[in-house]
Structures are given as structure tokens and as C-alpha cells.
């Protein structure tokens, strides 16, 4: 497989081929995951929770993401590497450019930021200066204290329409990929249909252009609370590579996520 680019992901959407994305934070897993067929690797600020043991993503720094991006980039040859912009690292377009520069120099091909149309100018500035942007709407974990918990978003019609408007505004501003987290399946299906860029879901039902999972969830490396939208692919596969091959195949065939992993 040749290098995966944003153009390639868009062509996959047009061809109806599903995109498989997963988080990774080091070279070992990055290499295994892309050998298993994932198209994109996300250095998520979920690392604050799964690696650092924090209760939220808020303490993660640009340097934390840069360190893990370098580790992933060193293990990766072809996947599209997306690095999360941490909490309060993109409050202004200027700050966003400085943060993104650090992450791109660490090996990212694209940065991801959480939020709506108030980021339009930031998305345009980053894109103009050579930084492709992935948006993140729905349940945006950096706003957990505004939401009052990790909850489904976009259940009411008005809120759903608002998420849709934000998605369209950011696409118009230059956003090239969108993650939709924890929204009703129908809303995710509508947004995926109405945008021409690929939409990657997590807890967003089967009718998006692709899926993303936190690697610890996909491998059952969890203790305590396990979100409804995740699946342990290691349980039925026996080794890590086979587990992620199964994840990629089930996404491609539309078998994951099933109704039991989705919100209706
Ligand atoms: O930080 C992360 O891992 C993420 C994914 C859950 C989309 O943002
Ligand atoms: Na994140």
C-alpha cells in the first residue's frame, strides 16, 4: 500500500470504501496497526487518560503530543498521521499555528482540533500555511466540564442542526477530515452525506465514511467503565495484528459498529 494522503481518503469516500483509523502512541503499535491495514493513526489527547491516568484530557501538553507523534512517526511508513491539538493550545489562530508547527515538525501530517464555527478562521490560517486540519464535533472531551460529563450530543433537533451547521462552516473554511463523537446515528449519516470531506465516527453509528477507536478499547486493555461504542477485537482474534485486521475488515464490510455500539 502506498502512502495514505488526505486526497486518498477523499477518494475512498467517493468510492464508498470505509476508512479505518485508530489511536497509537508509540512506534511498536503504529507499525503493527498499519501492517494490519489501518489507513490513519491518531495521536489522541486520550493519552492523558490511557497513558497518564488522568480523569480527562485537559492536562495534556503540546510537548506530550509531540513526543508521542515522533514515536508513532518513527514506526510508521504509510498511514496518515493525525495529531491532536491539546486543550487551550489553539485559542487564537496565532497560537494554533505555533502549536501545529511543533506537531508537524514532530511528524504529524494533519492536526485535529475540537470545536465549531468559531474555529473557522483558525482552520483557514492553518490550511493556508500548510497544515491540513481534522475537525472534531459532537462529544468534544476537552469541553467535558461544560457538558457536565461524557454524554451523547445532538439528541435534540436544535442541537443536531447546530452540529450540522458547524460541520459545514468548518468544511467551507478548509477542514479536510471530521471526527464525529457520540452523536445519534442518523445525525452522523446526514452529516456524512452532506459533506464532501470524509467523516470518521466514534459512537456515531455505521453510516459514516470511517471509524476511529482508542487502541486500548479495541484491544480490551480496559478496567472499569467501557464505553458502549467500543469493541474488544482481541478477544476473538488471539493476537494484536489479527485483532486490528478484524477491526479494519469489520469497518470495511459495515459490520462494525453494530446497533449495540450505536445511539439511535
Ligand atoms: O483523543 C482521542 O483519542 C480522540 C479519538 C477518540 C477520536 O480524539
Ligand atoms: Na482527542
UniProtKB/TrEMBL annotation:
<dbReference type="GO" id="GO:0008168">
    <property type="term" value="F:methyltransferase activity"/>
</dbReference>
<dbReference type="InterPro" id="IPR015813">
    <property type="entry name" value="Pyrv/PenolPyrv_kinase-like_dom"/>
</dbReference>
<dbReference type="GO" id="GO:0015940">
    <property type="term" value="P:pantothenate biosynthetic process"/>
</dbReference>
<dbReference type="InterPro" id="IPR040442">
    <property type="entry name" value="Pyrv_kinase-like_dom_sf"/>
</dbReference>
<feature type="binding site">
    <location>
        <begin position="45"/>
        <end position="46"/>
    </location>
    <ligand>
        <name>3-methyl-2-oxobutanoate</name>
    </ligand>
</feature>
<feature type="binding site">
    <location>
        <position position="112"/>
    </location>
    <ligand>
        <name>3-methyl-2-oxobutanoate</name>
    </ligand>
</feature>
<keyword id="KW-0808">Transferase</keyword>
<dbReference type="InterPro" id="IPR003700">
    <property type="entry name" value="Pantoate_hydroxy_MeTrfase"/>
</dbReference>
<comment type="similarity">
    <text>Belongs to the PanB family.</text>
</comment>
<protein>
    <recommendedName>
        <fullName>3-methyl-2-oxobutanoate hydroxymethyltransferase</fullName>
        <ecNumber>2.1.2.11</ecNumber>
    </recommendedName>
</protein>
<dbReference type="GO" id="GO:0032259">
    <property type="term" value="P:methylation"/>
</dbReference>
<keyword id="KW-0963">Cytoplasm</keyword>
<feature type="binding site">
    <location>
        <position position="114"/>
    </location>
    <ligand>
        <name>Mg(2+)</name>
    </ligand>
</feature>
<dbReference type="GO" id="GO:0003864">
    <property type="term" value="F:3-methyl-2-oxobutanoate hydroxymethyltransferase activity"/>
</dbReference>
<feature type="binding site">
    <location>
        <position position="45"/>
    </location>
    <ligand>
        <name>Mg(2+)</name>
    </ligand>
</feature>
<dbReference type="GO" id="GO:0000287">
    <property type="term" value="F:magnesium ion binding"/>
</dbReference>
<keyword id="KW-0489">Methyltransferase</keyword>
<comment type="subunit">
    <text>Homodecamer; pentamer of dimers.</text>
</comment>
<comment type="function">
    <text>Catalyzes the reversible reaction in which hydroxymethyl group from 5,10-methylenetetrahydrofolate is transferred onto alpha-ketoisovalerate to form ketopantoate.</text>
</comment>
<keyword id="KW-0479">Metal-binding</keyword>
<comment type="pathway">
    <text>Cofactor biosynthesis; (R)-pantothenate biosynthesis; (R)-pantoate from 3-methyl-2-oxobutanoate: step 1/2.</text>
</comment>
<dbReference type="GO" id="GO:0005737">
    <property type="term" value="C:cytoplasm"/>
</dbReference>
<feature type="binding site">
    <location>
        <position position="84"/>
    </location>
    <ligand>
        <name>Mg(2+)</name>
    </ligand>
</feature>
<dbReference type="Pfam" id="PF02548">
    <property type="entry name" value="Pantoate_transf"/>
</dbReference>
<feature type="binding site">
    <location>
        <position position="84"/>
    </location>
    <ligand>
        <name>3-methyl-2-oxobutanoate</name>
    </ligand>
</feature>
<keyword id="KW-0460">Magnesium</keyword>
<keyword id="KW-0566">Pantothenate biosynthesis</keyword>
<feature type="active site" description="Proton acceptor">
    <location>
        <position position="181"/>
    </location>
</feature>
